[in-house]
Amino acid sequence: MTLVLGLDFGGTKLAAGLVDRAHGALLTRRALPTPVAGGALASLDAMLAMARELLDGAPSPVHGVGISFGGPVAADGRTVRLSMHVAGWENFPLAARVEDALGLPAIVANDGDAAALAEFHFGAGRGVQHLLYLTVSTGIGGGLIIGGRLYRGERAWAGEAGHQVLKPDGPPCPCGRNGCLEALASGLSIAREARMRLRGPEGATSALSAIPPDTLTAQHVAEAAAAGDALARAVWNEAMGWLGIGIASAANLLNPGRVVLGGGLTRAGALLFEPVRHVVARRVMDPELMVVPAALGDNVGILGGAALLHKS
Fold first, then answer.
1. What is the pLDDT of residue 36?
2. Which one, of 36, 293, 264, lies nearest residue 136 by Cα?
3. Residues 178 and 284 in one domain
């Protein structure tokens, strides 16, 4: 058994775990809310405290630290470019700081890349050599495996399928552009579209009108759509249509052996996968392409960190 430490820096949660590198078996796990108000250093201190606790209890030597980070990471695999959720991470030498604190070699990747690797090695991507992974949640992130290896591109921006521009005159995206897939099919975009439509005449008959607008989420929309609410179903199906178009467009360029979808919105199950698969089947060139749910759940960040250190 070869143990590694997987660390997951998320916008709302920090998690750490000891992982058997060869099999992706999570042996021990710790987690706590991200101390957003304290900035980057507070998050780092909290994560290192969990890491030291795990290392102290490790049943055998730990060989390295793999870090999944919720934000862009530089091509060196060591430096965080920024975080959209927590201040102070700009150009932060995260790998070096972890190495100095723990005395182990460390490597960093953004959460989409790490999740793609985890699903490829340990989850729903096993059995193919080319994989496209998308996290469909508050935003839409992604990662790309080509020839069995993580592909990050010339300057580590590859795999950002959520920022394909599908509708140039569409709604604004957090990236600063307009009409990205994320601006059309993410959790935030679904909630935004529902709030806008609730202000129109159809809103009076929607069950969503009973929810305070500032608390309305994509989960509310999904639940109302599943119950037959007309406004919610229209908003949801339009977003799933854009998601299917985005997946098909990326697949026509990359021809992955499989597309794996993870993230909070996929908890809607068939409500998400059925319309998305229908649109993909109509638009993709490869008739054998499968769109499947991720397999690793809430542990994908920890396992993604560990997968950065995976050796076949």
1. 86
2. 264
3. yes
